From TrEMBL:
<protein>
    <recommendedName>
        <fullName>Proteasome subunit alpha type-6</fullName>
    </recommendedName>
</protein>
<dbReference type="InterPro" id="IPR050115">
    <property type="entry name" value="Proteasome_alpha"/>
</dbReference>
<dbReference type="Pfam" id="PF00227">
    <property type="entry name" value="Proteasome"/>
</dbReference>
<dbReference type="InterPro" id="IPR029055">
    <property type="entry name" value="Ntn_hydrolases_N"/>
</dbReference>
<keyword id="KW-0647">Proteasome</keyword>
<dbReference type="InterPro" id="IPR001353">
    <property type="entry name" value="Proteasome_sua/b"/>
</dbReference>
<dbReference type="GO" id="GO:0005839">
    <property type="term" value="C:proteasome core complex"/>
</dbReference>
<dbReference type="GO" id="GO:0051603">
    <property type="term" value="P:proteolysis involved in protein catabolic process"/>
</dbReference>
Amino acid sequence: MGTLQYAFKAINQGDCAVIVTQEKVPDKLLDSSTVTHLLRITENMGCVMTGMTADGRCRVQRARYEAADWKCKYGREIPVDVLCERIADSSQVYTQNAEMRPLGCCMTLVGIEEEQGPQVYRCDPAGYSCGFKAAAAGKFDWTFGHGFKPSEIEVGVVTVESPKFRILTAAEIDAHLIALAERD
């Protein structure tokens, strides 16, 4: 059974939301521990950014602002779908003005909602946002094969039991990769 089949089986269990990204270091002179595409937005929500790093950081900063503003106004965490829609709306503005270039990044958000459980949403540079049960983005968005080393991928997780967004350590990733390999 392929890795994607296991992913779809996990989706049906509905107790967590997981994001995985390949850890790519654009320059050999960079310290790989400082390069990440997996970021925390709030205590219970995280994201993975695909595309241009600077544009992604800009979107993350905006998402953190929107989340903090919502919490200040309403006294609770912003829902994942609402945050994604707000980020998509602000990204869409960049496509309308000649003096602004469209952002070259895609944001995939994960979080746990009290009523709906695990949530996965994605917004693109055109301003389109949508919820997913499973999603992939990037150059090889349809492939996720075996042979990855724990140092080559980053994994972020939120679960119903522990709704705080956390990034798995290399040892935890290795344990999951071994478990997946043993299932085959």
